[in-house]
Amino acid sequence: MVFIFAFLAQSALSAVIALNLAAVTQSQLDWARIVWTFPVITIIGCVPFYCRWRRVREAAALTFLGLYNVPPGDCVAAALLTLVIKLTWAMIGGAVLWREESLYRARPNHFQAQTVSVVIPPERSGQPGGDDSAGASLVTRLRDHRGRRRQR
Fold it and tell me: Is residue 74 in a domain?
């Protein structure tokens, strides 16, 4: 299921770049031939690495779309328009998160945990790495406990 959501997200981001390119270009493009470049530009733009020349997304758009004679100004304009759209949606998401957090904090009935459950593994009866395993020790303790309950 995760792979389906990841595929849909990459498809949507690639569609955004394609629609932005269609919005800024005046030339006729062979969309069937350049469709593979949009996911590549998206992936390269998302890779978290830094270099001296920080315009990685624009360079990827210029390089890959330039292979199909897309004008350089249109490549850079589409990449920058895509960046603006992503930043706009990030700000909308941040505003929604801020609003929800402030509403949550304003509620007086917060559940405060009174106890904490901790699972502590049983200790080994010998040296570390000895013959007794933790599972065998636990089984022995359970048998002893059941025997004591029966004696009562």
Answer: yes
